[in-house]
Amino acid sequence: MGTEPGGARQPTAPVSLQAVSKHYRRGRLVVRALDGVTADFGRGSFTAVMGPSGSGKSTLLHCAAGLERPTAGKVLLAGEDLGRMSETALTKLRRGKVGFVFQAYNLVPALTVQENVVLPLRLSRSRWDRKRPVEILRRVGLADRRTHRPAELSGGEEQRAAIARAIIGRPEVIFCDEPTGALDSGTAADILGLLREAVDTGGQTVVMVTHDPVAASWADRVIFLADGRIVDDAPAPGADAIAERLARLGHRKKTVPPNEPW
Asked: Residue 98 above 80 pLDDT?
């Protein structure tokens, strides 16, 4: 929390990355997946993160969500310094404050669609309106599949169930990794509309990795990564302009000698 000159406290952004780097060893080389990234994601904002394959998009998302520890720098999530938290405390924070939509849907095979969707509420022991799961499943097009198990769903249906699970508890922050990748254009628009509503009506924060300029155009802001660094950060200019900017970014991997300090 910051402090204004008069002593009033300013709320921090729900997600803040401060000079975050993440390095991986590959044999004798060290690959810089993230290289000194600094970015704030404010309350009630919708940010798309884009860049070529290998640019660090998913690594940024994982570090911001506390799923990976950065090599250097600081990550603040819901006002908490993740580097100072134990794994138990971090798990509790994510369970209460964060929704996830990742490329691996992570649905529990033994549970029905509806049971999977309400699982975050049960784990956090939250009280909820019993009508909400029915409404969420209707809005993602799964009302007639709520008693099915994941093995009985198509890839697109699994993705929709994962999205319903992420948004049902109205978390402070929703992280999405290619949330529309397995969906047809109509369903994708419905899902993006739900994320947009979470921001506009619920004041939630959405951080979405995507390769799709149309999906990115639903965001307020687009961050472009290349070689693990932010190379552009601007209000979403529309799908055509986003596609043009993305096309100009080259795919260049950076490595450093293994004896370079981390």
From this structure: yes
